[in-house]
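FAQ

Q: What does a record look like?
A: Structure on top, sequence underneath. For example:
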């Protein structure tokens, strides 16, 4: 099976939290099972290109973004065990020291999502499954769902959305998604009820074929009001496609 694994951080290249550890180890385990898995992440400025043997692969190419265009380059290397790793490079939004914590984080990860989808058109890899992790890559699930209505290639792609930390949902003004052809008419019911804000996590849950979490217990807990962080009803509606898999 061909799998694209998408994460905002991947150890050992860059680590902020536990997501990096999972993204750095799980793809290797999946590869050992005989699957063709590739990983993609943003190319942050803090990553040591020389240390990890990172080289340009595709580009630069330009994609429409906001009211103009952004230049994207795809770089690549191999992780421990030989898993291919792609990095989405952009000088304005990713060539920074920190991973998170910027006022324009919403725009940054919208651009990341757009670039990942365009990357698939330019490299010789057509995934059967795209596994997105936490809110940073959730919009990719939404994009694939939208593209599948028009393009046959995306109709054959299954999406998995993995929740590592439900507390961080990626909530922004709807203007951040104008570049992907979404507007206020596309808001989820949950978003309409909450001041019309875009909720990336909610979109990952809503539009994915399968939702997974880091354990069976956590999968049960997040369907409750106590642990659901306001998304418990959405998760409960998805219960038949919600699975807990121990890391």
């Amino acid at each position: 099976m061909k799998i694209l694994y998408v994460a905002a951080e991947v150890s050992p290249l860059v680590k902020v939290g536990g997501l990096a550890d999972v993204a750095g180890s799980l793809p290797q385990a999946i590869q050992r099972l005989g699957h063709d898995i590739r990983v993609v992440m943003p190319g942050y400025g803090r990553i040591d290109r020389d240390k990890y043997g990172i080289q340009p692969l595709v580009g630069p190419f330009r994609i429409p973004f906001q009211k103009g265009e952004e230049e994207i380059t795809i770089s690549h290397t191999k992780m421990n065990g030989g898993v291919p790793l792609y990095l989405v490079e952009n000088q304005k939004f990713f060539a920074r020291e920190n991973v998170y914590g910027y006022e324009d984080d919403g725009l940054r990860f919208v651009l990341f999502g757009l670039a990942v989808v365009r990357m698939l058109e330019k490299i010789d890899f057509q995934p059967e499954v795209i596994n997105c992790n936490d809110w940073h890559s959730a919009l990719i699930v939404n994009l694939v769902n939208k593209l599948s209505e028009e393009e046959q290639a995306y109709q054959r792609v299954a999406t998995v959305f993995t929740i590592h930390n439900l507390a961080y949902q990626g909530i922004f003004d709807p203007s951040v998604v104008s570049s992907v052809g979404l507007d206020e008419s596309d808001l989820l019911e949950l978003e309409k009820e909450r001041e019309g804000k875009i909720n990336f996590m909610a979109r990952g849950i809503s539009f994915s074929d399968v939702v997974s979490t880091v354990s069976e217990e956590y999968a049960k807990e997040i369907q409750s009001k106590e642990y659901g962080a306001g998304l418990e009803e959405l998760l409960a509606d998805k219960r038949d496609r919600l699975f807990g898999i121990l890391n």
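Q: Is there anything notable about this one?
A: The helical segments are 18-32, 105-122, 138-147, 152-155, 189-193, 200-207, 216-221, 232-237.
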